[in-house]
Amino acid sequence: MNEKNFEYLKDQVKYTGFGEGLESELKANLQKEEPNFTLSHNAQYGNDTAVATLNFKKSDQSDMCFFNSYKVELQKENSKEALEQTFYINKGSNITMKEAFNLMEGRSVNKNLTNKEGEIYNAWVQMDFKQADTNGNFKLNQYHQNYGYDLEATLAKHPIKELENPKYKEDLMDSMKKGNLQSATFLKEDNEVKQYIEASPQFKTINVYDGNMQRIDNRHSKEEKQSEVEKASVKQDSKKQNQSVDDDGPEVPKEAKKKRKSQSNSM
């Protein structure tokens, strides 16, 4: 077994978000010197379960082994069918396990990526559940720097308390760049209201959810001073209309399941 190769793979697995729990199993498989092998990792995110299968392949020209990709099967609490996606390991910054989960939830992740010429560039990545390749893998859309999405400027449009503290602001933005649904304190009429936000680079905005995880329409933010009774009435009357604009939100795995079924029928 190539010890340097083992050390490199061990760190690669760790920093791709799988921790150190696979270390002994990784070493045992390398010692067998088989051409291919896989490792399994289970993760729990709230009530959702994710199972990752890590794929390793030995070089035909040397004793080196490579961590090529990992496949994630996400079983959501209220879904009978698991969502599947394969993430490939690149020379640059890999998508971590938690970022993979966030992408499969429909959220966006900000990454430094490497192009074919070896140049590093920054982009927001979001899974397109309406497009899949012949293997059933969903396309990853990229929104580059020139696309014009500025998370900091977008957040500044909202009365978020954490933005007043440089450290809290930095932590908030870092978390959102990883694709997390982040809690934030909104200042409304001298009251502090806990809500949840996520980046939405495609539409150059952020998505906001209330404490019950119900989507809040940002375009009507000027009407936030309405009474709670008036707002409840507006939401009820426009419920069907709001459902039609949810395409820019994270609730796309339903569409994904339909796509997966049609994909499998065409194969």
From TrEMBL:
<feature type="region of interest" description="Disordered">
    <location>
        <begin position="217"/>
        <end position="267"/>
    </location>
</feature>
<feature type="compositionally biased region" description="Basic residues">
    <location>
        <begin position="256"/>
        <end position="267"/>
    </location>
</feature>
<feature type="compositionally biased region" description="Basic and acidic residues">
    <location>
        <begin position="217"/>
        <end position="240"/>
    </location>
</feature>
<protein>
    <recommendedName>
        <fullName>DUF3945 domain-containing protein</fullName>
    </recommendedName>
</protein>
